[in-house]
Every structure is written in structure tokens, then in C-alpha cells.
Write a structure and sequence with these properties.
Layout lengths: L7 H6 L3 H12 L3 E7 L2 E6 L7 E8 L2 E7 L10 H12 L5 E2 L3 H6 L3 H14 L3 H13 L20 H19 L11 H17 L3 H18 L1 H4 L6 H17 L4 H18 L4 H9 L4 H7 L17 H14 L3 H10 L3 H10 L3 H11 L3 H13 L3 H11 L7 H15 L2 H14 L3 H11 L3 H14 L6 H10 L3 H8 L7 H14 L1 H17 L6 H17 L3 H14 L7 H4 L6
Parallel strand pairs: 1-5
Antiparallel strand pairs: 1-2, 2-3, 3-4
Helix pairs in contact: 2-3, 7-8, 7-9, 8-9, 8-11, 9-11, 11-13, 11-15, 15-16, 16-17, 17-18, 17-19, 19-20, 19-21, 20-21, 21-22, 22-23, 23-24, 25-26, 25-27, 26-27, 27-28, 27-29, 28-29
Length: 596
């Protein structure tokens, strides 16, 4: 098995250095167990720090890795070490991955009665599955035929709002129970908004199908239950801002998707205004969408192609103007109203949406030409480059990269990375070098440093000095590892020592790496610091960390021997054993012959 367009470089790009190293260690230690390929999905168990192994799921398609999932609680950005370990196994030892049946193949062997029995058994084991089943049944009962999707909203049989209202009330009721529990409520574990957003997802699915009317029914059920029962959780300090903001966006999208009579519009306005006052929240965007609809004269003028500087607002635009426009564009996109989409995006200054839509429509050169005046941020450039890459317009994408790096914004690193990759693919070696240098300037790494050296040729000596200056002056957080790697690679031991002096205890791995090379260069620094770290552990009787203290002492011993101070080391070690003779867990470690 080979996962399409996935390499170790891709893994490195999507994970932190720490997760990458730990994932490599897990893989090498054989912690990835029972890997199974089921269609386009790889599943495995990874032995970790808990009694139960972590479960990994990797889903991929012809374009590469689509999604990853791990049951561990890791939430620090990028892939966790368990996912990394599993991916490394997929890439390096694909032959050991067993072939298993897909869900479709498994279910095809069951008759209706057996399928029903299976579902009942699963729900008995995991009662929360009943919510997912109810959701599926509600959606299936009134789903929009595929040939009617993306058209103007369709009138369908109304959905039953009661299950949604019950679910919201259950979420709030269970939260109150947690608050009243004798152990109290862990605010960091507050999942009220998260669970409510999952209920809200159901309304958004209807909106995506073009069924705004049923989405409104669900939204009314959710909002009414929240407004009526929120006081129960409010007294425990739970704010409504997160769910209220999401509801405001969903209401706006549903209103702009639904077919409403004049009477329904009046009723909706009254409800939203009443909820807004009672719940102390902001539904102004929903109310503005209801007021403006699709029949506002200025809006109609723009949608017909009369794009002027005035836009769609007769007076000063409201605070929600841009967010409302973006939701309108989403609706127009779902309904395949491409021409109106472009007119509105251009009129309201949504450059990113305007340029990417031109690209999606195959109007590549027009998009690139318009980008000269339309792009205002590096984010605009990045979105356009990604769209051009999807259309395989690589030369044009490279052109946008080069110009986009001069724009303000916060994603220059991603754009510079794209520029480098595109230049390599197109054989533009000098552009690739410039891109790699830009990447290093934004976020220095040992990998980029060595890659620049490989492709710099005769200009390396000059570039090396510039890169080292950039590295030394860079103040970004979390660059210690890159700096240590590069300083040690270049033999800049004193620079590495100066950096190590500023590191904290949890970065002991980096400090010890500096010590390994500093033993021959500055053994006295190693002795002073290694002994200090070891003594801080021993003096505090941290028995669980005595093994770490011994590692520090091994560094100190090597430095003593490097300077010929064998007797001094023996005396220091003997003093430690004398002072801490009552620490029974420590003494066998200090007496180990490896410390002689």
C-alpha cells in the first residue's frame, strides 16, 4: 500500500519537531500494532502512556491524506506522535499492513434483521449513538434529491423540531448536573458550546442542501430552548457568546436560503428581536439579512452588474456588512450563480473570493491580471495560489507568490513555502533558492538551512554569514532547537553554550546535546552546569528523577576526565555518596561502575 502524494517531508511539515521525534521513536520501538487497511482507510493501535492503546484512523484518497484521527487528547497543533508513528509505518513497512473488509463489505453480508440487531447492539454498548441515528433518520426523511441541490430553496415536508429542542435541553440539564456534582465542574472541560454546535450542524446541513425552510425550523427549536433554559447555566458563569454568534451566522444563511412569505418574515423578525433582548445577544446580522433579503434595490443593481463604489448600502454599512456579504457569497456559490457571485464580491471588496472564483471558472489570465489591483494582503495571494494550483496553473501561481510576499498579512511563511515548491517543480532554481531563504528568514529551521546550502553553490559562503546573522537576531518563540542544531552543525560551540545558558530545565535534552560537543571545547562549563542540574534533583529528593540526575553526572564525569581531573571526579562522587547515603534509591545508581 502507498498513500498517494504523502512523504516524510509531508509528515514533517504537518507536525512539530517534538511530535516528529517522539513519533519516530514510537515507530522504531514497534509501538504501532495491528495495522489494517480497509478500502481508503488505515486503522491501527499505538501503545502509549495509558493502559489502553490509542486508536488511529487515517483516511486518504487519490490526492493524498484526507483526514487523521487519534483518541489521545493532544491539541497542540499538527499531528500527534501516535499519528506520526502510524504514518511512518505506512510509508516504510506497507507490506505488514493487513487487508480488512470495508464497512460496505461487512454490511453487505447482513440481511435487514441482522443489520437492525447490529444497530441495537451498538446502541446498547454506546447509548450516545442514538443521537446520530435520530439525526440520520430526520435528514433522510426529507432529504433534497441530488438533481435539485444548489437551486433556489425547495419547499419540502417540514421537519419535526422536538428532537432538536430536547437535545439542547438535555445538554444544558447535564451541564447543570455536572455543576452540582460533589466534585464541582471543570471549566477547562466545559463542552456546552461544543455540544450545542454539533446540534447546530444539522441545520447547516439543510442549508448546504438548499433547504433553508427546514433549517429555520431547527434553528428556532435550538434558539428557543437556549433562551428559555440558559439561566440554569448562566448562574455558574457560562456565557452565551460562542453559541449565540454561531446561531446568528446560521440564521443569516438560512434566511438567505429559504423561501419566505411576507407574514413569515414578520414573524421571524419579531422572534429574533425578542430573543435578542431576552438573551442579551446580537442577532443584528440575521435581522439585516431579513430586512435586505434578495430584493433590496441596491443589491439587485449590483447583482445585475452595476458595480460602483457605493456597494449595496444606501448609508454607512453596518458592522456586520462583510460577514453578511461572505454568507451571501456562500449562498450564491451553492446555487451556482457565478456571475452574480463575481459582481457582489467585486462590489463589496471581497478580493480573495473574487479572484478565486475567477480561477475556479477557468478564467486564469483574467484572475492573474486582476490580482495586480485586487490583492490587498498576503492572505489574498495565498488563497489565489491554492486555487491556481488546483487548476494546475503553476506558472501563474508562482507569479502570484512572488508578488504576494510584498503584501501585508500573517501567512508569509506558507506563501514562501509554496513559492519554493512551485519553483522546484518548474525548474526555476534561483527562484527556489530565494524562496527557501525567505522561508528561513521567517521561521529558521535546520532543514531549510541545509537545503539552502545544497542549492546555493558558490554563493554559500556569503549566504551562510547572512543566515547565521538572521538566526542569531531572530526573536521568535520556540527556535531554540533550530539554533542549537545549526550552531552545533557549524561548530559554533560558544554560541551554543550562550544559548544553552538561557534555556530552562524542561529543555534539558537540548542542553545535554550542547554539552556533548562542549566537553572537548569548554569542559569547565559542562562540569559546573551538569553538577548543578544533578544536585538540584538529588537535594530535593526527587526519587522519580534520580535517573535523570545520573545522566547529568555522566556528562560531568566525561568533562572531568577530558581535563585529566580523574581524582577530582572521584572525590566529588564520593562526597555525593557520603552526603546522600540514606537515599536508598539513589545509592545503587551512584555506585554503578559506569560512573567510575
Amino acid at each position: 500500500m502507498l498513500i498517494p502524494k504523502l512523504s516524510e517531508a509531508t509528515i514533517e511539515h504537518n507536525t512539530s519537531n517534538q511530535s516528529l521525534k517522539r513519533g519516530e521513536a514510537y515507530y522504531l520501538a514497534g509501538h504501532v500494532r495491528n495495522p489494517v487497511l480497509r478500502g481508503n482507510m488505515v486503522q491501527a493501535a499505538v501503545i502509549g502512556s495509558e493502559l489502553e492503546p490509542y486508536r488511529i484512523t487515517l483516511c486518504f484518497d487519490d490526492t493524498g491524506l484526507g483526514s487523521t484521527f487519534c483518541t489521545c487528547p493532544y491539541d497542540n497543533g499538527g499531528w500527534c506522535k501516535h499519528i506520526v508513528a502510524t504514518l511512518l509505518l505506512c510509508l516504510r513497512k506497507p507490506a505488514i499492513i493487513e487487508r480488512g473488509q470495508t464497512l460496505e463489505q461487512l454490511l453487505s453480508s447482513l440481511n435487514d434483521a441482522q443489520t437492525r440487531e447490529l444497530i441495537e447492539h451498538l446502541v446498547e454498548k454506546e447509548p450516545s449513538l442514538i443521537d446520530a441515528i435520530e439525526r440520520y433518520v430526520n435528514l433522510s426523511a426529507i432529504s433534497v434529491p441530488s438533481n435539485q441541490r444548489n437551486k433556489t430553496s425547495q419547499r419540502t415536508l417540514p421537519i419535526d423540531p422536538d428532537p432538536f429542542q430536547r437535545q439542547v435541553r438535555r445538554i444544558l440539564r447535564e451541564a447543570v448536573s455536572c455543576f452540582e456534582d460533589e466534585y464541582g465542574y471543570d471549566e477547562e472541560g466545559d463542552t456546552i458550546t461544543e455540544e450545542l454546535l454539533e446540534v447546530l450542524d444539522r441545520a447547516e446541513e439543510f442549508i448546504a442542501q438548499g433547504d433553508g425552510n427546514n433549517a429555520l425550523i431547527i434553528l428556532e427549536a435550538i434558539t428557543e430552548a437556549c433562551v428559555q433554559d440558559w439561566d440554569d447555566v448562566l448562574e455558574y458563569g457560562i456565557e452565551n457568546s460562542g453559541i449565540a454568534s454561531a446561531l446568528n451566522e446560521a440564521w443569516t444563511a438560512a434566511i438567505l436560503t429559504a423561501e419566505l412569505t411576507a407574514e413569515e418574515e414578520i414573524d421571524l423578525q419579531a422572534m429574533l428581536e425578542a430573543w435578542q433582548d431576552e438573551w442579551d445577544c446580537d442577532f443584528s446580522m440575521s435581522l439585516e439579512a431579513l430586512r435586505q433579503g434578495w430584493d433590496d434595490p441596491l443589491l439587485l443593481d449590483v447583482l445585475e452588474g452595476n458595480v460602483t463604489g457605493q456597494g449595496v448600502w444606501a448609508v454607512d454599512a453596518p458592522d456586520c456588512a462583510r460577514d453578511l456579504t461572505l454568507i451571501r457569497l456562500q449562498v450564491l456559490d451553492r446555487q451556482n450563480r457565478d456571475r452574480e457571485y463575481l459582481y457582489l464580491a467585486q462590489a463589496e471588496g471581497c478580493s480573495q473570493q473574487y479572484l478565486t472564483m475567477l480561477t475556479r471558472l477557468g478564467r486564469i489570465e483574467e484572475a492573474v491580471e486582476a490580482a495586480v489591483t485586487e490583492m490587498t494582503s498576503v492572505e489574498d495571494a495565498l488563497a489565489l495560489v491554492e486555487s491556481l494550483k488546483e487548476q494546475e496553473a503553476l506558472e501563474q501561481a508562482l507569479k502570484i507568490c512572488r508578488s504576494g510576499l510584498n503584501l501585508p498579512g500573517h501567512c508569509h511563511y506558507q506563501l514562501a513555502t509554496y513559492m519554493t515548491e512551485l519553483a522546484v517543480e518548474l525548474g526555476e532554481n534561483q527562484v527556489a533558492l530565494n524562496g527557501r531563504i525567505k522561508v528561513f528568514e521567517i521561521k529558521p529551521s535546520f532543514r531549510d538551512y541545509t537545503l539552502i546550502k545544497e542549492i546555493a553553490g558558490d554563493s554559500w559562503s556569503t549566504l551562510k554569514a547572512d543566515l547565521l546573522t538572521t538566526l542569531k537576531n531572530h526573536q521568535s518563540f520556540n527556535l531554540s532547537e533550530a539554533k542549537v542544531d545549526i550552531f552545533l552543525y557549524e561548530g559554533l560551540i560558544e554560541e551554543a553554550i550562550a544559548l544553552a545558558d538561557g534555556l530552562v530545565y524542561y529543555q534539558s535534552g537540548l542542553i545535554q546535546r550542547v554539552m556533548d560537543l562542549a566537553i572537548a571545547h569548554n569542559p569547565n562549563w559542562v562540569i559546573a552546569n551538569a553538577c548543578r542540574y544533578a544536585e538540584s534533583i538529588i537535594d530535593q529528593s526527587k526519587s522519580g528523577e534520580y535517573n535523570i540526575a545520573i545522566k547529568w553526572l555522566e556528562k560531568a564525569r566525561a568533562a572531568y576526565l577530558q581535563t585529566g581531573q580523574n581524582l577530582q571526579w572521584s572525590a566529588y562522587r564520593s562526597k555525593l555518596m557520603q552526603v546522600h547515603s540514606r537515599k536508598r534509591n539513589l545509592m545503587p545508581m551512584l555506585k554503578n561502575p559506569d560512573l567510575d
